[in-house]
Amino acid sequence: MKRYEDTAVGIYLRLMTREDTDSIVAWRNREDVRRNFIYQELFTRESHEHWIRTRVETGQVVQMIICNLEDDMPFGSVYIRDIDRQHNKAEYGIFIGEPLARGRGVGTAAAKLMLAYCFDELGLHRVYLRALAGNGQAIRSYEKAGFVREGTLKDDVCIDGAYQDIVWMAAVKN
Fold this sequence. Notes:
There is one protein chain. By secondary structure, this protein is an alpha+beta fold. It has one domain (4-172): 3-Layer(aba) Sandwich (Aminopeptidase), CATH 3.40.630.30. The chain is built from 5 helices and 8 strands; from the N terminus they run ββαααβββαβαββ. The protein has an 8-stranded mixed β-sheet with strand order 1-2-3-4-5-6-8-7, sandwiched between helices.
């Protein structure tokens, strides 16, 4: 795999390993991270290891760790899931687990790097995502990275007893 890095923002992507499990579980269970996910169940080491066995190792998922260029500190994760080789598309996801990495363009840069990987290395044509409509910061970041809003699904998910809209976005290879 080619190295995907953004020197201006100071990050690079590397493939996730099993050794990242504890960090991923801790990040994903942070309330400030979890509340922005459609599926908000708590992660466990066992559930993440199951994800690796059944999704990553089978090629349905590619998950990478976002790292600081300066000291290799991991900040969070980007991934594509449900890779569809017939239609050359996949769903994108991201979480920034380290608060010190937020608000400085890390999410946007990581999304751009992951899109480059998807289009250039995997040969995908379309990468899509779903975001809670109330997560305006993430939606703006996705737009800066090249995703375009395609629609809003009204009352699509029920979280804590309240229905919420989902914004559907995608980036298509030029």
